[in-house]
């Protein structure tokens, strides 16, 4: 016992290399034991703060918790989740997907393709991902399952599609990158636009190929002999959702509201839609708000722990450690770049993107510039890397967000398994960005 | 090294300010023959920028290089001394006030009770104003939707008839681009230019008229008191030299960026007349009094500041 | 066929919404669950404030100085409370690879250990937050001054939020102790009486 205590209060003596390994090992072990995710990262942060620096360093963690919850960008998370919770309780989503099925016609995988299309539109409406994955998880996932789609395919489309929120402008990842690297956010947005669409089109191509190779994965509606007039009636389901999208996108691109405010406009639009449909009730709003509280509690507390952990790691000398790893690896720019990608990939397995950005940007950006690469292109590349980090296990935020609203029968293991092919597509996109920087238009 | 410290900056890693601050840590190390090594961390790497004061007092960080106005919520005095909107039209005026007008002593009177020692002041210089619409005087500010985050700046613009919108830095670009706001208080011209703000809001005002933040370099008081006197002197000297070199480096960058902006042909750089600047200054000084009422320390800052400005003929 | 599946989905949604606190969370868990309504209402209020701000600014060119700070505050308290809310309902996400593979008896013991560890951690965090709160509600000379935001409106939201964080973390520590005790009882008592 004394030895354990002694070790706990002398962690500093093991040095940063062993410390980093122990940190990742501890994260993994505590995750697997079944401690709630939100507390795993907080716990590891606590152990290292106390062990490395002593109890007086613990306020660092609570200070980060305080700063994390009070940052303006996260205001759009509850807004998107509230939108999702209201849609989920009304018939809007159902009618939308019925209408989409008509539009998709007899195209195999049509609903999944349209879900990706919806995801891209959502991505243009928001700059973060938590709310979007939840929204698609509540709306699109049950509908695809209802229509007989393969579960893995449906899960993958929802998570990967929802994660597009930071790839298609506006994007908080690109904004933070721009502030850190001192490059034009406008240039970053412009350069990210096509790569974002490219990634989405990979998803579409993947869905179509899988669906045509194995028709059972994506059943098409049988000719049902329903008269055309009735079919056209079903198309009404498109009207309200499209109006809401116009309201939100219009308010952003028309300069009426900031991106965060626009998410509130979306909620108002959805509430109005339920009123128009005669579905609105106080109980509906109350239930939706309570679900929002619960879902946001989960989403935000996952991020809280990750942010705290990075603070502790940086204080331990994490920035110097990572920078020493890179310097001296090679004089060949390509190898340095690939090594950076490897670091981003590994970090992506364990940390939230905010933490990764805090840790790596100060190191990577100056090196990239020195090597003669375009920092805007690298920003887009970084953003694409973060797409991978959202999905990659064991710490895959998009998977966690989906899990928080998925039907109980879907486990995290199911979700991660379903995400594998989509991670491969993201890695392919990263590789293409490196091989053909021209994709960014730079 | 004999003394190893961790300082956190309020600037991000790629920002020119941060690179210059790294230069300061290097010069300090040279000045002390390697006895002092400072690891400079970018904004947010240990704690958020508003929390560094507490972290230093708690011994988590050793020091910071930061805009003093971030602590206006602790005491309004920090807000007033950090950015007495309208007081300075040149960095040297502020530096003179710090060294000869009692500014340094005032800063330490404020900071020491919080457990920090103030080493010295620097500044990025006069911030340029970012605008989508041509602004050539105070009257043009009427009803202008503009972003202003910090206390006094926001208050003064409101008093000048503008409609200040409270937005975080991360929302400035898109909001300005899409026209949610027409103008913004952001940072110095060269950085605005690099981040593309002048491309979406092509009527910048340069030289600026509204804000010149005091950036403090300070550290944990107990740790400072333990330092031998020659090291303390090296700190103070190196900060003084750094302040001068930062101001001239950034002024040169600004000039270069202004030339580039003018040559591009898309951006119109506006320069306010002395009359308009004076008009704005008198509105600003009217607001100082309101801040002074907020705390005894703020009143003290107000008294020292106005006395100095009057004695030196900087205000009537 | 289709209708059945839709009905199933409907009940699942209902289930998730009405799940409530787990029995092991005790009376405190019920109380926390009830309290949730206030913070959920705060989120709706935040939405209304943002809409109001957009209208005032865009239509009347008269933005307020309080809307954004208030919105952030309402969301922040909801986020903080949400963590406690999920604890009482045991709805925080877990990776259950090992957790699910052990038998129910081992799992209950695991639950006891996890709850105790989390209680200790929460207590630690509550203490650390007290250190933040101290600097946020007192001036160095000992007089009371609630830390404000420093904006032109200058509300004391930072102090309130730090105080609130202290309260929630303290309650969370107690909640974990309650959970540990109740899991412990179940582990010793006849099996299969919960869930
Ligand atoms: Na987006
Ligand atoms: Na990941």
Residue runs with pLDDT of under 50 for 5 or more positions of chain A: none
- C-alpha Rg of chain B, in Å? 19 Å
Low-confidence residue ranges of chain B = none
Based on the structure, what is the oligomeric state of the protein chains? Answer: heterotrimer
What is the tally of helical segments of chain B? Answer: 13
Shape of chain A: globular
Compute the number of strand runs of chain A: 0
- Mean pLDDT of chain B, to the nearest integer, reads 92
What is the number of domains of chain A?
1
Q: Biggest sheet of chain B, in brief?
A: 5 strands, mixed
Q: Give, in spatial order, the strands making up the sheet with the most strands of chain B.
A: 2-1-3-9-4
InterPro entries (chain C): DctQ, TRAP_DctQ
Subunit structure (chain C): The complex comprises the extracytoplasmic solute receptor protein and the two transmembrane proteins.
Membrane topology (chain C): Multi-pass membrane protein
GO molecular function (chain C): transmembrane transporter activity
How would you describe this structure to a colleague?
The complex is a heterotrimer of chains A (442), B (316) and C (195). With 442 residues, chain A is mostly helical. Chain A has helices at residues 2-8, 15-33, 37-53, 59-69, 76-89, 92-104, 110-125, 130-146, 151-163, 172-181, 185-213, 228-234, 239-253, 259-276, 282-315, 318-326, 333-350, 353-370, 375-391, 397-405, 412-435. Chain A has one domain (73-280, 316-442). In chain A, helix 5 (76-89) packs parallel to helix 14 (259-276), helix 7 packs antiparallel against helix 11 (185-213) and helix 19 (375-391) runs antiparallel to helix 21 (412-435). Chain A is globular and about 75 Å long. In chain B, the strands form 2 sheets. In chain B, strands 2-1-3-9-4 form a 5-stranded mixed β-sheet. In chain B, helix 6 (151-159) links the parallel strand 6 and strand 7. The N and C termini of chain B lie far apart (51 Å). In chain C, helix 2 (26-58) packs antiparallel against helix 3 (67-89) and helix 3 packs parallel to helix 6. Chain C has one domain (2-188). Helix content of chain C is 73%, strand content 0%. The longest helix of chain C is centred in the middle third of the chain and has 34 residues, at 104-137. Chain C starts with a helix and ends in a 7-residue tail after the last helix. Chains in contact: A-B, A-C, B-C. The interface between A and C is large, with 72 and 68 residues. Residues 123-124, 126-127, 165, 168-171 of chain A line the site of one sodium ion (NA). Residues 348-349, 389, 392, 395-396 of chain A line the site of one sodium ion (NA).
């Amino acid at each position: 016992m004394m030895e354990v205590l002694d070790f706990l209060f002398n962690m500093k003596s093991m040095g940063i290399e062993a410390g980093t390994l122990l940190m990742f090992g501890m994260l993994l072990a505590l995750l697997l034991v079944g401690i709630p995710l939100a507390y795993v990262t907080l716990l590891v942060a606590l152990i290292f703060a106390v062990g490395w620096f002593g109890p007086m360093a613990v306020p660092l963690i609570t200070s980060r918790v305080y700063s994390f919850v009070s940052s303006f960008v996260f205001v759009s998370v509850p807004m998107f989740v509230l939108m999702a919770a209201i849609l989920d309780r009304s018939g809007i989503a159902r009618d939308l997907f019925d209408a989409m099925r008509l539009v998709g016609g007899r195209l195999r995988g049509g609903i999944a393709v349209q879900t990706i299309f919806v995801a891209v539109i959502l991505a243009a409406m928001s700059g973060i991902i938590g709310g979007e994955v939840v929204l698609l998880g509540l709306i699109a996932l049950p509908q695809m399952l209802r229509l007989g789609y393969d579960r893995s395919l449906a899960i993958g489309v929802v998570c990967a599609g929802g994660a597009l929120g930071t790839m298609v402008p506006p994007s908080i990842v690109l904004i933070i990158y721009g502030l850190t690297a001192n490059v034009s956010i406008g240039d970053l947005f412009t350069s990210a636009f096509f790569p974002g669409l490219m990634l989405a089109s990979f998803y579409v191509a993947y869905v179509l190929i899988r669906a045509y190779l194995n028709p059972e994965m994506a059943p098409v509606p049988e000719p049902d002999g329903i008269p055309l007039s009735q079919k056209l009636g079903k198309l009404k389901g498109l009207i309200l959702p499209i109006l809401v999208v116009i309201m939100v996108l219009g308010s952003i691109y028309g300069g009426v509201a900031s991106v965060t405010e626009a998410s509130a406009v979306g909620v108002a639009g959805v509430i109005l839609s339920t009123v128009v449909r005669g579905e609105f009730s106080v109980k509906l709003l109350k239930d939706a708000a309570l679900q929002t509280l619960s879902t946001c509690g989960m989403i935000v507390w996952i991020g809280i722990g990750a942010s705290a952990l990075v603070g502790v790691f940086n204080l331990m000398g994490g920035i110097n450690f990572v920078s020493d790893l890179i310097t001296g690896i090679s004089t060949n720019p390509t190898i340095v770049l690939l090594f950076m990608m490897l670091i981003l990939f590994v970090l992506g397995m364990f940390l939230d993107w905010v933490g990764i950005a805090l840790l790596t940007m100060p190191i990577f950006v100056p090196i990239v510039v020195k090597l003669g690469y375009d920092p805007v292109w690298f920003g887009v590349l970084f953003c694409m890397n973060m797409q991978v980090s959202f999905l990659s296990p064991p710490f895959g935020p998009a998977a966690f967000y989906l899990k928080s609203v998925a039907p109980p029968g879907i486990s995290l293991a199911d979700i991660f398994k379903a995400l594998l092919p989509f991670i491969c597509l993201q890695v392919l996109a990263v590789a293409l960005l490196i091989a053909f920087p021209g994709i960014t238009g730079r | 090294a004999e003394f190893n410290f961790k300082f956190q900056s309020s600037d991000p890693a790629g920002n020119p300010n941060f690179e210059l601050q790294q230069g300061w840590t290097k010069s300090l190390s040279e000045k002390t023959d390697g006895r002092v090594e400072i690891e400079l961390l970018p904004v947010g790497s240990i704690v958020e920028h508003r929390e560094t004061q507490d972290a230093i007092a708690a011994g988590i960080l050793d020091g910071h290089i930061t805009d003093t106005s971030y602590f206006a919520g602790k005491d309004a005095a920090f807000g007033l001394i950090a950015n007495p909107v309208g007081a300075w039209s040149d960095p040297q005026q502020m530096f003179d006030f710090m060294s000869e007008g009692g500014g340094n002593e005032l800063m330490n009177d404020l900071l020491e009770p919080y457990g920090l020692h103030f080493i010295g002041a620097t500044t990025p210089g006069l911030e340029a104003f970012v605008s989508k619409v041509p602004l050539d005087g105070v009257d043009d500010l009427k009803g202008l939707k503009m972003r202003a985050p910090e206390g006094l700046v926001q208050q003064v613009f409101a008093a000048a008839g503008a409609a200040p919108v409270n937005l975080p830095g991360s929302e400035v670009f898109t909001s300005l681009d899409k026209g949610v706001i027409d103008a913004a208080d952001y940072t110095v011209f060269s950085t605005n230019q690099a981040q593309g703000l002048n491309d979406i809001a092509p009527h910048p005002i340069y030289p600026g008229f509204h804000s010149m933040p005091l950036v403090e370099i300070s550290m944990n008081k107990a740790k400072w008191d333990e330092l031998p006197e020659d090291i303390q002197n090296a700190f103070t000297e190196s900060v003084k030299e750094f302040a001068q070199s930062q101001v001239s480096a950034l002024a040169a960058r600004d000039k270069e960026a202004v030339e580039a902006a003018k040559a591009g042909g898309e951006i119109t750089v506006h320069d306010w007349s002395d009359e308009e600047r004076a008009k704005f200054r008198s509105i600003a000084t009217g607001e100082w009094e309101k801040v002074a009422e907020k705390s005894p320390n703020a009143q003290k800052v107000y008294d020292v500041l106005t006395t100095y400005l009057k004695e030196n003929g900087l205000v009537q | 066929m289709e209708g059945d599946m839709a009905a199933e989905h409907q009940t699942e949604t209902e289930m998730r919404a009405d799940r409530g606190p787990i029995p092991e969370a005790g009376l405190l868990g019920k109380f926390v669950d009830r309290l949730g309504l206030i913070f959920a209402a705060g989120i709706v209020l935040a939405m209304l404030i943002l809409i109001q701000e957009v209208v005032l600014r865009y239509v009347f060119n008269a933005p307020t100085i309080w809307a954004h700070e208030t919105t952030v505050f309402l969301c922040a308290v909801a986020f903080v409370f949400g963590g406690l809310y999920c604890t009482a309902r045991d709805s925080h996400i877990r990776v259950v690879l090992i957790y699910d593979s052990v038998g129910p008896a081992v799992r209950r013991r695991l639950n006891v250990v996890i709850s105790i560890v989390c209680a200790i951690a929460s207590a630690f965090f509550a203490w650390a937050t007290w250190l933040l709160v101290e600097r946020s509600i007192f001036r160095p000379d000992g007089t009371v001054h609630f830390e404000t935001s420093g904006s032109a409106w200058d509300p004391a939201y930072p102090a309130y939020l730090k105080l609130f964080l202290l309260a929630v973390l303290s309650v969370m520590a107690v909640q974990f102790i309650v959970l540990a005790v109740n899991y412990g009882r179940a582990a010793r008592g006849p099996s299969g009486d919960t869930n």
